[in-house]
Amino acid sequence: MRTLLLVVCLLFATLPASAAVINVEFNFTPYLAPADPNAKQVDTIPGKAVVFLNNQVLAEQELEKRDLPVLFEEREISPAVWIPASSMGPGLRKGMNSIRVEFTPANPTQPYLARFSWSEVTDKETRTDDGAGRSTATNYGGTGKEERPVKGKVVFERAFTADFAVDRAWHHYPPITVVSPADKSSLAALLKERATLFKPNFAAAYKLLEKQPNLTVAAMQKAKCLENAYKVGIRVKAPTAEQLEAVISNSPELVLQGKGGSPLHPFNRAAFEKIKGDENQMCAAMALFTLYPPRLTVVRNPAGKWEIVE
């Protein structure tokens, strides 16, 4: 019996550890069906794509007509919209989540194909052999896609698990079901306080940018990204309580936007062109739109105080 147990233990000890999922990537592409089924590229459909994470607006993207390459024997299409879970921000829950993509074409009468696909990214490579001495390696698994012939608006939705996400305390706060006039006044004051950070010497603003893991703030400070924006006359104006619109979704998050879905902090994009150099323009825009995005997510902590989700 002991010998059998030892053999079993040795067997399991030699088995490779299962790969852990460290990311999930979603792709969306609306395109015209090519006349040639073996075409090397396809034409995308102009329109507007809106991505929702757990019923909250995550991103909006205007799509223009573009030529996208068709890749590999599997006829994979380079995505028009790429949505990695690792870039979804703090709204991503540890465990079960949902993603929804809504696309409205510029021409509602034009028939087209809409493709939505997904792939899990793992921490280990999987190797396959085709039997002819050739092998391939990939760290993708759990792939799939859905494609539909459509006309007009199209919606794709999928549940997915993100055990790699950070479990944040506010994920477990009670859902917000009502926003009172007093709440709106407090929220307007919170936004006004944040707007005051955009002023010389910008130390507090750069400090806030450090909370974003995808930004190299030291390089941004060296390039004087915020200073350049201020120098050409760009300013930040916070909305008043009357100009504020709160989107309730029966979750701990509350999304703030301007009336009618307008941006919280409207910037004159043409003003960025006054900044010398494309890289400086891009840096200034990235810094400002990170600090003052079109929408902001807030939560109410157990003490009843509103906080901006960074």
Structure description:
Residues 123-146 are annotated as: Disordered. Keywords: Signal. Residues 1-19 form the signal peptide. The chain is α+β, with helices and mostly antiparallel strands and 310 residues long. The protein has two domains: 14-162, no CATH class; 171-308, no CATH class. It contains six helices and 15 strands. The protein has helices spanning 2-14, 181-195, 203-209, 217-223, 225-231, 278-291; strands at residues 21-31, 41-43, 47-53, 56-63, 67-71, 76-77, 81-84, 95-105, 111-129, 135-151, 154-162, 244-248, 254-258, 296-300, 306-308.
List keywords for this structure.
310 residues, alpha+beta, 2 domains, four-stranded antiparallel β-sheet, 6 helices, 15 strands, globular, disordered N terminus
